[in-house]
Write a structure and sequence with these properties.
12 helices; four-stranded parallel β-sheet; alpha/beta; Rossmann fold; 12 strands
């Protein structure tokens, strides 16, 4: 009889495992069980959830976060900066994921909390941030083995990338975020991390993600490679070779102008390591004095 009862108890479902997640603002959220429905108010979080094989846990997306069958089919709850609280509440998420940084988003976060929602706010400024947040999402979604595996893979690839250009002088790079009213990637944020991992050196020294930059300062900085970001923040920017005052830049004269995709390079998600690998491949001829110069990849329009 005793053995029968033990066998019967083994067949019963295990009780739900409560868990507590602390976000980057020091706020702790306790759930009775791993989250089954989450809403990300910043697209990189959705991409990290997909990278963990947990796309079925995404309950909605923002207006800017389509581009894949898994995301396109989800209901839209507004924009990153202006999500619709009523729609979010109606979808009954276990947790809402928000990006730290802007004051406007923090006001929205407090508003969502006042409606009884669990909001977790995370920073995504570096590779280490991506690794840490991936591990937190692995815990939140009961995907810890998958999270550990992805983080190990990313770290291994970054080590190999850095070894590839070890001992070489870094390539001096300017990264254009927007033109005109020139806006550059500064010395903080995922673009800076990608540049360094790829064997480059950002000529913009200010420790900010975005830096307003003058054409005079750009000429004095003398970048060896000029990167043009293409995407919503920089739509239709003319090639640097067609801009007044840019023709005398060494990078433009040498044809070392690279176009890169904004989503891959400026969004700190699972594509960031691949972006660094891509940039390293494209920089290698410029980093090796015995290799031929790469042809310009400027738009020809």
């Amino acid at each position: 009889m005793k053995n029968f009862l033990l066998f019967f108890l083994c067949l019963l479902p295990l009780p739900a495992r409560a868990l507590t997640i602390t976000d980057d603002l020091g706020r702790a959220v306790t759930l009775d069980a791993p989250a089954r429905r989450v809403i990300a108010l910043y697209g990189a979080f959705s991409e990290l959830v997909l990278a963990l094989g947990a796309g079925h846990c995404l309950a909605a997306r923002t207006a800017a976060d389509g581009g894949s069958p898994e995301l396109d089919a989800l209901p839209v709850i507004g924009t990153h900066m202006r999500p619709n609280p009523e729609l979010i509440v109606a979808l009954r998420p276990d947790a809402v994921l928000q990006l730290a940084g802007r004051q406007e988003t923090q006001a929205q976060t407090e508003s969502l909390r006042s409606l009884g929602l669990n909001v977790l706010t995370f920073t995504l400024d570096s590779f280490e941030d991506i690794f840490r947040v991936t591990e937190k999402l692995g815990l939140l979604l009961d995907r810890r083995p998958q999270a550990d595996a992805r983080v190990r893979e990313w770290k291994t690839r970054l080590v190999a990338l850095r070894e590839r250009h070890s001992g070489r002088a870094p390539v001096r790079i300017f990264y254009e975020v927007r033109y005109p009213n020139l806006l550059a990637a500064g010395g903080k944020g995922i673009v800076q991390e990608i540049i360094v991992a790829a064997g480059g050196e950002n000529v913009v020294r200010e420790r900010k993600k975005l830096v307003r930059y003058s054409e005079e300062a750009l000429i004095q900085a003398r970048p060896e490679v000029y990167i043009v970001q293409q995407g919503p923040m920089n739509p239709g920017a003319p090639p640097p070779r067609l801009r007044p005052h840019y023709k005398d830049l060494a990078a433009v004269r040498a044809g070392r102008v690279l176009n890169v995709d904004e989503k891959r390079f400026a969004r700190p998600g699972p594509h960031a390591v691949a972006a660094a690998e891509e940039l390293s491949r494209r920089l290698r001829p410029a980093a090796d004095g015995h290799a031929p110069r790469p042809p310009s990849t400027e738009s020809k329009e």
